[in-house]
Amino acid sequence: MTATAPTRTDTAGGTPADVVAEAARRRTFAVISHPDAGKSTLTEALALHARVIGQAGAVHGKAGRRGTVSDWMDMERARGISITSAALQFSYRDTVINLLDTPGHADFSEDTYRVLTAVDAAVMLIDAAKGLEAQTMKLYAVCRHRGIPVITVVNKWDRPGMDALALMDEVADRTGLAPTPLTWPVGIAGDFRGVLDRRDGTYRHFTRTAGGATIAPEQVFSAEEALAREGDTWLRAVEESELLAETGAVHDQELFLAHASTPVLFASAVSNFGVGQLLDVLVGLAPAPVDRPDEDGKPRPLDAPFSGFVFKVQAGMDAGHRDRLAYLRVCSGVFERGMVVTNGRTGRPFATKYAQQVLGRERETIETAYPGDVVGLVNAAALGVGDTLYAGDPVIYPPITTFAPEHFAVARAADTSKYKQFRKGIETLGGEGVVQVLVSERRGDGAPVFAVVGPMQFEVASHRMEHEFGARITLEPLPYKIARITDRKSAPELATARDVEVLQRADGELLALFTNKWALQVLERNKPHLTLTPMVAAE
Ligand code: G4P
């Protein structure tokens, strides 16, 4: 149980100075990538480098693969490391790293987006042969929207793939970020010999280990030695690196933090190449938690009393208990298990006695957490996504953006005698954000509209309504494709327009739904006085 240590330092009750120092040694990030780019492999390799686990592959066999969450659960069981289904925590050098999980499937994107509200940086993982893929671009758009600094890792360089310079062009063209490689590959994709470290001109030569199972030893050679070893292959890397320097592709910390440039590394996660360098870059360049602005834009100092916000809510992992688990990102002060905090939305107290306890048979509960850390709270029926919890001076953090839904369907109870269960289920799913629940007087309470980013959310909602709440539902698709936020003044006029319907979301926001973009454009042109605010698109 060694790696659970980082969260339990001896500073319980910590003085403000402790909090600032503890925050400074935290790095909280997520990996954004398209399925199959190697996120699970990289996650495991990172943990391996941090010496959380002894040998990669032990829990990551082909046969046993069940997606990242269960990979982590298996890793936890095998090694006793501190994992929730939302975050993996480990220490590296003197830094505490919180790696937040982003569900892989495209249709769970809304969940993923919420996770990105809780990170301070993102690692954009690209498959060297495929470049920037659809899901990566969608997630990147959220990082851009939120101004999250992005570190780019080109993975699978051990396999044939694109030309490195062409890849840099693609990153620049499609993200608008200036790529500033910190390392440059020696050998084309498929002939990965090592990297030229552009920061000091040395050659980091990699030695393969059997199946990438242990930390790949890295030998450092001078430029002369590199030339003697690799000849023209080395010269080509040097030339390309100089070309990059001439075009200004050199790391600048301010530009990186301002989301204008992205440092780039080349790696082969499966062979553990470049993984240690990524950890060093996370420690050296990625930002530590800073004072987080509240809903009025006023920063809450890191050393203010405890505060945090819920970025993810999950139904009980234990089918026997209809329990809710809320994941909280600590923003200020010290979290201590057992403390009674206030829910900013309801003004009600919330007792944190069961922080993380539900999550594992063998796991110890989290006792103390600092800004940047993630705490899992059980018995969290009273908590919803976006809620702020605080102690001492009140604070409310900005609401978490919900993304523009693109698919809509009316939900009805298949068995009308189960109406009570139906209502309860709808309320819960809406509160968890599994789907956005929209209602209107015209449709009535018995026929709420589910609004989702990806159609798989419908399946998840149907399944849970039936199995968790005992209320089977039917879903009738609606022809709408576009949603805009509107207001009470515009709503009556919108309601009379063709191909438009106005509904109210559970959080009180009014949504105008359009069947096609022309219906929307006509209204925008002819009735410019109407409020029709775009929502953040999931792409
Ligand atoms: P994901 O979580 O992003 O979906 O990707 P995952 O790590 O599951 O990796 C997808 C596939 O890519 C796996 O192969 C994995 O081994 C492989 N992979 C990951 N990183 C690298 C790399 O750096 N180089 C190469 N050549 N392959 C890499 P698989 O065949 O699906 O599974 P397995 O047989 O390897 O377990």
UniProtKB/TrEMBL annotation:
It is found in: Cytoplasm. GTP binds at D101, T102, P103, G104, H105. The keyword Transmembrane helix does not apply. One of its GO terms (biological process) is regulation of translational termination. Residues 24-290 form the Tr-type G domain. Keywords: Cytoplasm, GTP-binding, Nucleotide-binding, Protein biosynthesis. GO terms for molecular function: GTP binding; GTPase activity; translation release factor activity, codon nonspecific; translation release factor activity, codon specific. It comes from the Bacteria. One of its GO terms (cellular component) is cytosol. Pfam families: EF-G_D2, GTP_EFTU, RF3_C. Gene3D superfamilies: P-loop containing nucleotide triphosphate hydrolases, Peptide chain release factor 3, domain III, Translation factors. Belongs to the TRAFAC class translation factor GTPase superfamily. Classic translation factor GTPase family. PrfC subfamily. NCBIfam families: prfC, PRK00741.1, small_GTP. Increases the formation of ribosomal termination complexes and stimulates activities of RF-1 and RF-2. It binds guanine nucleotides and has strong preference for UGA stop codons. It may interact directly with the ribosome. The stimulation of RF-1 and RF-2 is significantly reduced by GTP and GDP, but not by GMP. This is Peptide chain release factor 3. It comes from Geodermatophilus ruber.
